[in-house]
Design brief:
Blueprint: H1 7-13, E1 25-30, E2 34-41, H2 60-78, H3 81-84, E3 87-99, E4 107-119, E5 122-131, E6 134-147
Length: about 150
């Protein structure tokens, strides 16, 4: 396994598509343990136009979604393809989410994520979000892998 995934490799692992595929790259991958996701927050990102006009901010819920996508990509990249083929990953819970600073367009949001534990198809993760070394948000969450219908 490589220690990084580009956008196309992420697309091959996840069901998300633009505009909802938020992560652009997954780097520093430690198989089934940790990685850093890169989200290029652009002035033309889909959420900027309405959140908020004149004072654009990446919604906190989308930061949490990006955490979830990064965790799903980390997990899918680390397990056998037959384990995630025809599967979806769904968030089960979000805990201790804190938004410390606004994420504004034209920045590179770095999400440092870690798998805390897994039990069967349920995984627990934690993550910290940074822009230029400044902490923007952090959270813990759980997700499950389910069969596609």
């Amino acid at each position: 396994m490589t220690d990084k995934l580009n956008k196309q490799e992420i697309i091959n692992l996840l069901p998300h598509r633009d505009p909802m595929l938020l992560i652009d790259e997954l780097i520093n991958i430690k198989k089934l343990f940790s990685a850093t996701a890169i989200v290029n927050v652009r002035k033309d990102s889909f959420f900027v136009q309405g959140h908020f006009p004149g004072e654009p901010v990446m919604p906190g819920v989308l930061i949490v979604e990006a955490f979830g996508q990064a965790a799903a990509a980390l997990t899918a990249a680390g397990i056998d393809k037959t384990e995630y083929e025809n599967k979806l990953v769904f968030l089960m819970s979000i805990e201790k989410a804190r938004f410390r600073n606004p994420v504004i367009p034209n920045c590179k949001l770095e999400l440092n994520i870690e798998a805390i534990r897994s039990h069967g198809r349920v995984w627990k993760y934690k993550g910290d979000a940074f822009v230029e070394g400044k902490k923007m948000a952090d959270a813990q969450w759980s997700a499950t892998i389910v069969d596609r219908k």
